[in-house]
Amino acid sequence: MEIVIANKSHLVYAAIICETIAESAKVRGTGIAKRTPEYVSTKMENGNAVIALDGDTFAGFCYIEAWSHGKFVANSGLIVHPDYREQGLAKKIKQKVFEHSKAKFPEAKIFSITTGLAVMKMNSELGYKPVTFSELTTDQTFWNGCQTCKNYDVLQRTEQKLCLCTGMLYDPKKASEEKKPIKSKVFQRLKQMKQNMFLKKEKK
Q1: Where are the domains of the chain?
Q2: Can you identify the CATH homologous superfamily of domain 2-199?
Q3: Which InterPro entries match (predicted)?
Q4: pLDDT tens per residue, the chain (204 residues)?
């Protein structure tokens, strides 16, 4: 298995990457913003993506987005092909794109919004901390990207202050502080609380 910084030679995988992301959203029933092959290709061309390959076979992917003039960076679109799941590959891709983000944008705060408990756990192990959305980028272009997510109405109702996603932030200025990963049970409770809160509102 090879995990590398993507480039123009990997553009042939753009379509399958988008298909895998879309299928994963359907299976999990979670909110995931849609990506287009053109958008993914741009990330590869700019050296802002990581791809995992088993020979010539696509195995996994994740890309970088810069916001607020480079003050914030997001690692988005983390996906592992079904044939390669439950092998620890997602964690390796996450580590690779995280290190690449720090090297390319050393002053930026790295953030993530996700409903996935596994991603929350990986973020926590890397030093991310749960934060309110107000501590993330105010770049409206980022939040507009949530429009294709099935939970976008929740984000709108709360004036972009809350959603089913949990916001997490890595601040390089605080990186020297002790990294104490948060227990998975904490994220599970947080996710359940959000689901109960918003589902009750929808039923009224």
Answers
A1: 2-199
A2: Gcn5-related N-acetyltransferase (GNAT) (3.40.630.30)
A3: Acyl_CoA_acyltransferase, GNAT_dom
A4: 999 999 999 999 999 999 998 888 777 655 566 789 999 999 999 999 999 999 999 999 999 999 988 899 999 889 999 999 999 999 999 999 999 999 999 999 999 888 778 888 899 999 999 998 989 988 888 888 888 777 888 888 888 888 888 889 999 988 765 566 666 666 667 666 656 666 555 555
